[in-house]
Amino acid sequence: LSDDGSVDVSFVVFDNANNMCRHIRTVFYDDYQSPRFTLTKPLVYYTGQTVAVMDRLKLNDSLSGDITHKVKLEASNVNNDQVGQYEVSLVAVTDYGDEITARLPINIQKYDALAPVIQLSDYLVYTKVGEPIHPKDYITEIKDFNGFPIDINVVFVFNQVDFSKPGGGQFRLEVSDGDGRTGYSFLSVIVEE
Questions:
Q1: How does pLDDT run across 14-45, given as a tens digit for each residue?
Q2: Contact predicate 157/184, CB 8 Å
Q3: β-sheet bridge partners, residue 23
């Protein structure tokens, strides 16, 4: 698949005498969009926990469908024994030669079974340069350990995304309950040209 969305298709036909005819046509995909990564959970793990990005990462292509199996981990600086923010680099190549890359933040946190929970509708979103997003728009539920709701207005948002250039980052969403326990969620963002 070329940059202009075209691909050459070869047709080969035979007649009854086994004579061959070959013809090449160029097909343009005017609605093609490069595959996009999605996450089913945030990229947060607990100290000592095995970091298995592929258990929550998907990649879908409009032409070939689910191509998650083509995703390769290209680089990682994750240390799952130490609390902190790390990064993984992912790459995949579609059946048509379209290369997709992403650098995603990985978060290692201390486990607290009693911490509040922030659930999001999406854990990875795409936007364009100069088009910031509002992470609270993705919150679907906030509840404490006992299942009681927590007001969205007490959620703190920490922005680690530069919307002025292609790249990415994340928002850290943080909420504390009445007992002082803090829960986190992370919204990863990829900023495209």
A1: 999 999 999 999 988 777 788 999 999 999 99
A2: no
A3: 11
